[in-house]
Amino acid sequence: MKIENVQTVGVIGGGVMGSGITQVIVTAGYRVICCDLTDEILAKTRSAIINGRYGLKTGVERGKITAGQMDNALANLVLSTKLEDLKDCEIIIESIGGGAVEVLEDRDAKLKLFTTLDSIVKGDSIFTSNTSFLTIATLAEAVKRKGNFLGMHWFRPPVVLPVVELTYTPDTSEETLRLMEAFCKSIGKEGVRVKDVPGDPGFIGNRLYHVAAAEARKMVEQGIASQEDIDKVMELGYGWKMGIFGMSAAFSSTRQEFQEKK
Q1: 137 and 238 belong to one structural domain
Q2: Which of 90, 94, 165, 181 is labelled catalytic?
Q3: Residue-range definition of the domain harbouring residue 7
Q4: Average pLDDT, integer, range 79-96
Q5: What angle do CA 152, 186, 239 make, to 5 degrees?
Q6: pTM of the model
Q7: Is there a contact between 196 and 151 (Cβ–Cβ < 8 Å)?
Q8: What is the CATH number of the domain that holds 249?
């Protein structure tokens, strides 16, 4: 498959990340079928895409997109509770949560979902997971199309942050990687290759963040500096847009928002 063949993208999960991912892709001109469990959840997904903090209306108000582009984006949006509607998608992006505040991601739920999708979606389609830390090879065990399977980890908020981690397994084909790099470019994102490793350590961003966060917490416990001052040094000294503890608060907010959207 070539990038020119990609017409329709399926996004599974209309929560905080799924709605943002969907918005990015429909704005770029692709048709997107966003699936979730209920019409009520999908109504919230549509509202987030239109009226959210980084939604289409805000984009028009700030001059990021035109009213015409907003109309075109919404024309590209399809909402569904039926996985069968994804059968002709060229790319699938899984972005389901864990179902509980303390569980951000549910490996078993993802495996079950991919097994089902493998029997529904056409054989040459590419499957991706927006997991932030689960080992990709483990998820790929659920499907026969291992050469067409990879991680596609977006950062929050997807509408704003321009990088996507593309995590490949030993089975992921070079053709699949190149197509997904081209797809990322076509939607205004920079795709970065990451080698998959066992043990659920995260990829680049989260793996490095957790090392830094552990050291920052140790410094607070030892009375070396306060949370506020550590964040101040990282923001003003290293140019981080958000300090370590600010990022931790943002992660907690993501979990809470996910629960509110259910």
Answers
A1: no
A2: 165
A3: 3-195
A4: 98
A5: 65
A6: 0.91
A7: yes
A8: 1.10.1040.10
